[in-house]
Design goal:
By secondary structure, this protein is of the alpha+beta class. It folds into two domains: 1-55; 66-227, no CATH class. 23% of the residues lie in helices and 25% in strands.
Length: 232
C-alpha cells in the first residue's frame, strides 16, 4: 500500500515538474516575442521620424494653438534659381547654398552684386480677422518688416526691395509686384512674403530643413518647416 502511494507521489511530481517547465518556456517565449515587437516598433518609428527630419516633410504647419491654423503656408521657394515663386527678377545665384554670412561685405544689394539671397513664402490668412505680421524668424534669425518698401513697386535694379535681414509683403492681386504699405494681412488675403536673408548668420546649405516662425501678435508663434533649395 505504501509502495503504491509512494509511486503515485513520484508520478504526480514528475507531471507537475513537466508542467512547470512548459509554463517557464512559454513565459520566456512570450517575453521574447514582446521584446521583438517593441524593438521593431521603435525601429520603425525612429526610421520615419529621421526620414521626416532629413527630407523636411513634417507637414506644412506645426501649430501651437488653434489660432495659428488661421495662417496657412501655401507655397515657398528657396532655390538657387531665378524668378523665385514667379516673381520677376527675384533671383539667387547658383552657388549651392543660400548666401548669408558670405555676403557680409555688400549685403543690401541684390545677390548678383554680392548681396544676401532671397526666399519667398506664400501665405494666406484663413481667419476671420486681420493678422499683423510683426517679425519673421528664419532658422532662428529674426527678420523685421522694411518700412522703406511701403507702397513701392518691387524693383531689384532700382533698389526697391527689402534690405539685409528684412522682409516685404507683396499682394497677389492686380499688381503682384506691389509691396504692401503695412504689415496687415486681411482675412482671406493671399500674400507673398519676400525675405532677404540676414548676413550675420551662417550660410544655409541646400537640402536642409529651415525652421520658420511668424510673429502675428498672438500668444504663440506660427511655425513651419521648409527645405532649402526647394520649391513647393
Amino acid at each position: 500500500m505504501n509502495t503504491k502511494f509512494t509511486s503515485n507521489q513520484k508520478l504526480e511530481k514528475k507531471k507537475n515538474s513537466r508542467l512547470r517547465n512548459r509554463r517557464a518556456v512559454a513565459d520566456v517565449i512570450s517575453t521574447m516575442m514582446l521584446m521583438a515587437v517593441t524593438v521593431t516598433g521603435a525601429s520603425t518609428l525612429t526610421y520615419f521620424m529621421n526620414d521626416a527630419f532629413v527630407t523636411g516633410n513634417l507637414g506644412s504647419v506645426s501649430s501651437l494653438d488653434s489660432s495659428s491654423l488661421n495662417l496657412l503656408l501655401l507655397a515657398y521657394d528657396t532655390r538657387d534659381s531665378v524668378n523665385l515663386l514667379t516673381l520677376m527678377e527675384v533671383d539667387n545665384l547658383n552657388d549651392s547654398y543660400l548666401c548669408r554670412a558670405s555676403c557680409v561685405s555688400n549685403p543690401d544689394t541684390i545677390p548678383s552684386l554680392g548681396g544676401t539671397e532671397f526666399i519667398v513664402l506664400q501665405l494666406q490668412n484663413n481667419g476671420l480677422n486681420s493678422i499683423f505680421l510683426d517679425k519673421v524668424s528664419i532658422g532662428g534669425t529674426i527678420h523685421s518688416w522694411d518700412s522703406l518698401t511701403s507702397g513701392a513697386t518691387l524693383d531689384l535694379l532700382g533698389g526697391e526691395f527689402p534690405r539685409d535681414g528684412m522682409f516685404s509683403i507683396l499682394t497677389t492681386g492686380g499688381n503682384p509686384n506691389l509691396q504692401s504699405e503695412t504689415i496687415e494681412i486681411q482675412n482671406g488675403q493671399i500674400i507673398n512674403l519676400l525675405v532677404k536673408l540676414d548676413s550675420s548668420s551662417p550660410d544655409i546649405q541646400l537640402n536642409k530643413g529651415i525652421p520658420v516662425a511668424l510673429n502675428t501678435g498672438g500668444m504663440h508663434l506660427v511655425e513651419f518647416l521648409i527645405e532649402s533649395g526647394d520649391a513647393r
